[in-house]
Amino acid sequence: MNLRGTVETRFSYEHPTFVDMDTRAAQYYGIFSSVERLGAGTFYFVNAKDADGDWMDGGENYKLTVPADVPAKQFWSVIVHDVETGSWITDIPINKEGVASFAEGLEKNQDGSVDIYFGPKAPKGKNETNWLPTVSGKKFFLIFRFYKPEAELFNKSWKLNDIEKLK
């Protein structure tokens, strides 16, 4: 069944010899439990479309400029997921699902912002630490995560830029 506005995936807790109820229960609790202070520990933005409103395609190249002073006391990160499975992209050329603000070698711009690139190959002349691989023929989405988010996120005085398709 595919409800309007949802994406159907083949993600399952069913395996050939068992149903992984423990992982399913832990996942359910983490997503649906009532925490005392929602957003106090982490807060996520999810995006599957570029600045033009088009679905992001793993065969194309994109750039996300993360503005300076991200309102996260601990750190921020961005990860790539496969739209079809709702999970990490497994057939990428390197074992790398995300970029985090604490990554060794992360290149910052003079104003403190950070450019993150997405595409099937690392952009020429750019730091590979700032790149996340995607796969041609697969649509993907991003999860931008804030760890220990601060007030500027919630009062909207800090805004994350749209992802731009590179021409």
Helical fraction equals: under 10%
The total of beta strands comes to: 8
Structural class: mainly beta
The shape, in one word, is globular
Element-level helix/strand string: HEEEEEEEHE
- The fold-level CATH name is Jelly Rolls
- What's the arrangement of strands in the largest beta sheet? 1-7-3-4
Number of domains: 1
CATH class: Mainly Beta
- The average pLDDT is 85
Q: What is the CATH homology-level superfamily?
A: Domain of unknown function DUF1214, C-terminal domain
Q: Specify Rg, calculated over alpha carbons.
A: 17 Å
Please identify, by name, the CATH architecture: Sandwich
Contiguous helical run count: 2
Point out poorly predicted stretches: none
Portion of residues in beta strands equals: 25-35%
Walk me through this protein's architecture:
The termini are far apart. This protein has 2 helices and 8 strands, in the order αβββββββαβ. It is mostly beta strands and 167 residues long. It has one domain: Domain of unknown function DUF1214, C-terminal domain (Jelly Rolls, Sandwich). The protein is globular and about 55 Å long. The strands form 2 sheets. A 4-stranded antiparallel sheet has the order 1-7-3-4.
Index terms:
2 helices; Jelly Rolls; 167 residues; 28% strand; 4-stranded antiparallel beta sheet; 4-stranded mixed beta sheet; mainly beta
Helices, strands, pairings?
Blueprint: H1 21-32, E1 42-47, E2 62-66, E3 72-82, E4 98-100, E5 114-119, E6 131-133, E7 140-149, H2 151-154, E8 164-165
Parallel strand pairs: 5-6
Antiparallel strand pairs: 1-7, 2-5, 2-8, 3-4, 3-7
